[in-house]
């Protein structure tokens, strides 16, 4: 397994001794080569799970292992890992070319100007290479992250809501790049609300609700499960709604 | 490691160069400098002009030291607030190299700023025909060491609290302030106000005084240079000792910053 979580639990302490269980004994196994999607309503714990896998957040109990090890900020395993954050949290005072070069250098890969410009041309943002990241649209900012991934060629790619706010053209471009990376052997772990997009790219998915895993399977099997539950349902979105509602009524 | 350090340092310097708040502050200082120099245009004696140059050097070094001290805090806080720190944390060799580069960038800025002030002072001396004192160089170096001490403390404090709280904490918990508070409390006790809380407060302040950083650890020994700008051989030794103290504080500040960043939840 390339990523594994074992009884992963995160409890946030709030004011006046209140607590919020963000993750409750989450067990997940992601295989090498998978395009794995973490699905769930707002507040289900998708981003929290991703942060735990990346070592950005320490779990209250249980653990998350990547390449068989628990990640911590700056550990050597990040040579083979790339991460695209939820909001475009890039260094917005840099230009597009400077940002891509910087991230590539930090990842320890060759960031020679011709190589960087090749990647920018491939992603159709070469004309904006001198534009500050702050002045870029969300789609262009996401392409900065993708450009870094293409230079980096990681074994494992973490994406946090990557397609939120992208226009249809940018979404398709982005999807094509992700599928190409996955075909070349890059394992992908992605959080998303866009179930139609997930259905097009992911081969496996887990559905989280209230911090618990309520379903984990191949995407095709999840779609089938949705069909079984309500008779004649055909999309991942329908399956998702059926599974989440069934879980909510079971826990009501 | 070296490549990452250079990449981080270049990016930090770009951040500082493109930061509008910093630019605005620098312009404000230039304006203040021009206002300070204006009266000197109407002075005609060398001794008066010498006093003006000394005053301008002091004010400008103070401003440069204030900016340099806050740079680590500014870089750290901006990157935490914009959450770009997540991108740094998910790269190999994250915080040890990044924090080193933050200190290096601020130190480079400090060297440049104090050098510019020193050159300005030299230019003014030449222009006004005032004999140049080596004490001005000594003064610049002392201010640089003091900037480094404050930089290390503020950056480390910035990892555990809000920048304003960090600045206020350092404004109180430093050798100068604690010494003044200690002297005041001591005077009160000597004057007969020998209440237990007062004595306890005096003890606590004394303990804090020895634990807190000092911006000018050899201030008493270097007082003559600061007043007359005449430097004796022994004064250079105190200067090197001040730099050694700054290095030690810098190493402590660096380690504390790295440890605290590693302990933080980076969501």
Give me the secondary-structure topology.
The complex is a heterodimer of chains A (252) and B (267).
Chain A: E1 3-13, E2 19-30, E3 35-39, H1 46-54, E4 61-66, E5 81-84, H2 96-106, H3 113-122, H4 138-152, E6 156-160, H5 168-183, E7 187-191, H6 195-201, E8 204-209, E9 212-218, H7 219-230, H8 236-250
Parallel strand pairs in A: 3-7, 3-8, 5-6, 6-7
Antiparallel strand pairs in A: 1-2, 1-4, 8-9
Helix pairs in contact in A: 2-4, 3-4, 4-5, 7-8
Chain B: H1 2-17, H2 20-37, H3 46-81, H4 85-89, H5 94-128, H6 135-158, H7 163-172, H8 175-190, H9 196-211, H10 223-228, H11 233-263
Helix pairs in contact in B: 1-5, 2-3, 3-5, 3-6, 5-6, 5-11, 6-7, 6-11, 8-9
Task: Describe the overall structure.
The complex is a heterodimer of chains A (about 250) and B (about 270). Chain A has about 250 residues and is of the alpha/beta class. Chain A has one domain (about 5-250): Rossmann fold (3-Layer(aba) Sandwich). Helix content of chain A is about 40%, strand content about 25%. Chain A is built from eight helices and nine strands. Chain A has helices at about 45-55, 95-105, 115-120, 140-150, 170-185, 195-200, 220-230, 235-250, and strands at about 5-15, 20-30, 35-40, 60-65, 80-85, 155-160, 185-190, 205-210, 210-220. In chain A, a hairpin with a 2-residue loop joins strand 8 (about 205-210) and strand 9 (about 210-220). In chain A, helix 2 packs parallel to helix 4 and helix 3 crosses helix 4 (about 140-150). Chain A is globular, with a radius of gyration of 19 Å. Chain B is mainly α and about 270 residues long. In chain B, helix 8 (about 175-190) packs antiparallel against helix 9 (about 195-210). The relative contact order of chain B is 0.11. At the A-B interface, helix 1, strand 5 and helix 2 of A face helix 1, helix 4 and helix 5 of B.
């Amino acid at each position: 397994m390339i990523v594994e979580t074992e009884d992963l639990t995160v409890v946030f302490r709030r004011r006046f001794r209140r607590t919020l269980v963000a993750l409750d004994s989450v067990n997940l196994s992601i295989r090498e080569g998978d395009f794995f999607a973490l699905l769930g309503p707002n507040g289900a714990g998708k981003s929290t799970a991703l942060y735990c896998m990346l070592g950005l957040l320490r779990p209250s109990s249980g653990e998350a292992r990547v390449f068989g090890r628990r990640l911590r900020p700056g550990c050597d395993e990040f040579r083979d890992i790339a991460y695209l954050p939820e909001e475009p949290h890039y260094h917005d005072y840099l230009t597009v070319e400077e940002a891509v070069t910087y991230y590539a250098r930090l990842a320890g890969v060759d960031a020679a100007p011709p190589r960087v410009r090749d990647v920018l041309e491939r992603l159709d943002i070469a004309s904006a290479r001198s534009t500050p990241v702050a002045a870029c649209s969300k789609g262009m900012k996401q392409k900065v992250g993708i450009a870094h991934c293409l230079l980096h060629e990681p074994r494992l790619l973490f994406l946090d809501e990557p397609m939120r706010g992208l226009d249809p053209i940018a979404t398709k471009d982005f999807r094509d790049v992700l599928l190409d990376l996955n075909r070349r052997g890059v394992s992908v772990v992605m959080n998303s609300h866009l179930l139609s997009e997930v259905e097009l790219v992911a081969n496996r998915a887990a559905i989280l609700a209230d911090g618990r895993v309520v379903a984990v399977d191949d995407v095709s099997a999840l779609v089938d499960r949705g069909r079984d539950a309500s008779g004649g349902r055909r999309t991942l979105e329908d399956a998702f709604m059926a599974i989440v509602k069934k879980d909510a009524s079971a826990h009501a | 490691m070296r490549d990452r350090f250079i990449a981080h340092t270049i990016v930090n310097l770009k951040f500082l160069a493109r930061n509008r708040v910093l630019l605005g502050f620098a312009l404000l200082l230039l304006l203040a400098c021009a206002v300070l120099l204006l009266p000197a245009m109407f002075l005609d004696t060398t001794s008066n002009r010498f006093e003006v140059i000394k005053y301008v050097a002091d004010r400008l070094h103070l401003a440069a030291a204030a900016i340099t001290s806050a740079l680590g805090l500014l870089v750290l806080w901006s990157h935490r607030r914009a959450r770009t720190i997540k991108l740094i944390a998910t790269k190999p060799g994250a915080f040890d190299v990044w924090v080193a580069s933050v200190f290096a960038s601020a130190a480079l800025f400090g060297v440049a700023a104090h050098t510019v002030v020193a050159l300005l002072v030299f230019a003014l001396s030449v222009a006004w025909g005032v004999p140049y004192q080596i004490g001005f160089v000594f003064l610049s170096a002392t201010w640089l060491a003091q900037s480094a001490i404050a930089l290390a403390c503020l950056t480390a404090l910035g990892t555990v609290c809000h920048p304003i709280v960090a600045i206020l904490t350092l404004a109180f918990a430093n050798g100068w302030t604690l010494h003044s508070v200690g002297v005041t409390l001591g005077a009160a006790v000597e004057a007969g106000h020998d209440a237990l809380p007062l004595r306890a407060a005096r003890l606590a302040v004394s303990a804090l005084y020895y634990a807190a950083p000092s911006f000018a650890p050899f201030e008493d020994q270097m007082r003559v240079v600061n007043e007359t700008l005449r430097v004796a051989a022994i004064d250079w030794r105190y200067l090197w000792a001040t730099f050694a103290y700054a290095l030690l504080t810098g190493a402590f500040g660096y380690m504390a910053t790295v440890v605290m960043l590693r302990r933080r939840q980076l969501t």
